[in-house]
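To illustrate the input format used throughout this study, we show a single complete record. The first block contains the structure-token representation of the backbone; no residue identities are included at this stage. The design step must infer an amino acid for every position from geometry alone.
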């Protein structure tokens, strides 16, 4: 099967491209490198530099393709608040362009990177796929709009689709070119930021009075290798006219202090922290219910927080 990986020079997309290739899939990569890095493209792989906002570039990328893994997009919550139009344009309009070009090229299979941000503040923990969707920021709203768009496309055009709602993705993959890891600028994700903190620039803990065991927020983390394993299982499960949605997390939560403790153990000293006030819009606890992915895809995440921290740390060297 020939898979087009959009966003394939970014953190998660480059990991997907590497694992797909190692498993014998033919791949092409489409990316404008706005937040990705072209040096992550494996030698010999077809790379089409281009934007989701340019339909003719997408059409070139879709030549001879059987399925799409759609990672490309803007993904910073804070930036989405200051630039909602940019997020709507790239994520929603860009995906509309992609679906239109897929139809024109008779490509009827898509696996899409959705997000836990579609749920907003949950009423029940763990969060089921059937939970109410009420995004609290423009980024989450764009992901929800795309999920709805894909559902309509599946009903009306018969495409086979899966949306994967990731919780917090972490860890890295070592390959022959070094580590494929988070290289975001700015980096907003907790694990790389904790590992890079110093006494001059300690980890800020936003709220230490949440109703959790140690007072800090609890989040669900999934290793990027486990995440891509779920993508490949989702790809192989695609059925015409069906759009399935699955949560991808570990089904367990770690508090900010537990993440700092795991990182301190891995790095060999106590990572400095500073308690800061709560941030508006941060729910206390976000944990995925992953039983649907386990039951229907046969997917089981196997890597815990210590591996996510250790691989991220190793990727710095
Ligand atoms: N990292 C996480 O924890 C997480 C959680 C939930 C969902 N997601 C989603 O997973 C996907 C990948 O996330 P990531 O962390 O690898 O982000 P990333 O920024 O590293 O990768 C996104 C890629 O999309 C490319 N891109 C952006 N705009 C484009 C455009 N107009 N045309 C073509 N390419 C474009 C970027 O250059 C980049 O390579 C995103 O859709 C993100 O919303 C990520």
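Output of the design step:
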């Amino acid at each position: 099967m020939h898979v087009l990986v959009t966003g394939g020079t970014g953190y998660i997309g480059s990991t997907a491209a590497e694992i797909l290739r190692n498993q014998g899939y033919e791949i092409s990569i489409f990316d404008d490198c706005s937040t990705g890095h072209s040096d992550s493209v494996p030698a010999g792989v077809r790379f089409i530099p281009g934007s989701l906002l340019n339909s003719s570039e997408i059409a070139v990328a879709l030549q001879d393709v059987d399925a799409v893994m759609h990672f490309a997009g803007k993904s910073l919550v804070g930036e989405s608040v200051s630039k909602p139009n940019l997020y709507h344009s790239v994520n929603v309009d860009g995906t509309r362009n992609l679906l239109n070009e897929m139809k024109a090229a008779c490509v009827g299979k898509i696996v899409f990177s959705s997000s836990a941000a579609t749920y907003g503040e949950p009423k029940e923990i763990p969060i089921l796929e059937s939970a109410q969707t009420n995004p609290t920021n423009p980024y989450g709203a764009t992901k929800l709009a795309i999920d709805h768009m894909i559902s309509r496309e599946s009903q009306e055009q018969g495409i086979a689709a899966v949306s994967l709602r990731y919780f917090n993705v972490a860890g890295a993959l070592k390959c022959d070119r070094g580590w494929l890891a988070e290289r975001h600028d700015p980096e907003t994700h907790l694990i790389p930021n904790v590992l890079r903190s110093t006494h001059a620039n300690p980890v800020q803990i936003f709220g230490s009075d949440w109703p959790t065991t140690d007072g800090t927020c609890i989040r669900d983390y999934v290793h990027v290798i486990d995440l891509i394993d779920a993508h490949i299982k989702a790809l192989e499960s695609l059925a015409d006219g069906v759009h399935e949605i699955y949560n991808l997390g570990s089904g367990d939560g770690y508090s900010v202090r537990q993440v700092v403790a795991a990182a301190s153990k891995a790095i060999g000293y106590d990572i400095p922290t500073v308690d800061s006030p709560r941030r508006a819009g941060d729910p206390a606890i976000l944990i995925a219910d992953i039983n649907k992915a386990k039951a229907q895809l046969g997917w089981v995440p196997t890597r815990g927080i210590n591996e996510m921290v250790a691989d991220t740390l190793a990727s710095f060297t």
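Structural context for interpreting the output: Residues 202 and 273 are 5 Å apart (CA to CA). The mean pLDDT is 96.
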